[in-house]
Amino acid sequence: MDNKELFHQAVSFITAVHQVTFDMTKDFELGDITPVQYGMLEYIAVSQPVTLSEISECKHISMPNTSRELKKLTDRGLCEKFDAPEDKRKQYIRLSAVGQSFMNAAFAHMEKEFQYRLRHSTEADLKRIAEAMQVLQESLFQEGFKSGGA
Amino acid sequence: MDNKELFHQAVSFITAVHQVTFDMTKDFELGDITPVQYGMLEYIAVSQPVTLSEISECKHISMPNTSRELKKLTDRGLCEKFDAPEDKRKQYIRLSAVGQSFMNAAFAHMEKEFQYRLRHSTEADLKRIAEAMQVLQESLFQEGFKSGGA
DNA sequence: TAAGTTAGTTGTCAAATGATAATTATTAAA
DNA sequence: TTTAATAATTATCATTTGACAACTAACTTA
């Protein structure tokens, strides 16, 4: 197996994933929520409850900017903060009922596009897809380890 | 196979791909090239020669903004325009020698991170990874078709 | 308890990006 | 041959995003 060739394949693959992800989400109406704010909401939805620091680190947004954007979201009633019992400096963030239903709609939209793409897939196809994702997520796209590291 | 469950797996997978892609590229020194400009260069590198319209459509940047950002890149000597012989309105864009070596460095950096992630993989592993990417790119992450369509 | 560290906030500034209108030149269609 | 459509440019403006400094409060460690 030529590693160089595998790398080229990976570049093409990653490009396709980005492209398809964009296509699957692009016609969901964000209203006056900005892309960065939506990214934060998505992260909160999946990982709630989360702290501000966690959002900041995972979404690669500085603490001041995270704080600012999150404030806009809470002001709009999309998420809620509550004090961490174990550490009074910390605040946990979760979606409000409104925020939850907004994100439910977003995910429903994504899932519709997703199911459309798989409309002609057989049971065997779906199984192969699930296995393929698992293979990649356990190797190339495994998270939580660094190379050079800063 | 539960489609709902597969969707959740896909969300997790896509998140991992985005995360790892970011990690693999983040410590490459962009100098004073902005992220959007880098995205354009990457697209040109892979698909050259390309027209302005193609960049605009594929990178989802309006024509005026594409034109503006591309002008900055050509002014810096990173890419070159040349007239399309078949249509005098069109201009093809390709990387200059300088732009080419910049992108070579960028890809080399990515590849280094890539190979590091696969450093413990056996021949059999690499084969499974290649096959997995192929499976997904032929199904879920197939490009060039739309659902609702605008 | 003093000093240092962590979590988060507020304010301000500059740069990057997105959006729109108006324009030229060229090609395609009626 | 007028008309409409396409490819690209320029100019302008508003918004978004990123970066930095200064700050408070709470926690940790020596």
Automatic annotation (TrEMBL), chains A, B:
It comes from the Bacteria. Keywords: DNA-binding, Transcription, Transcription regulation. One of its GO terms (molecular function) is DNA binding. Pfam families: MarR_2. Residues 3-138 form the HTH marR-type domain. This is MarR family transcriptional regulator.
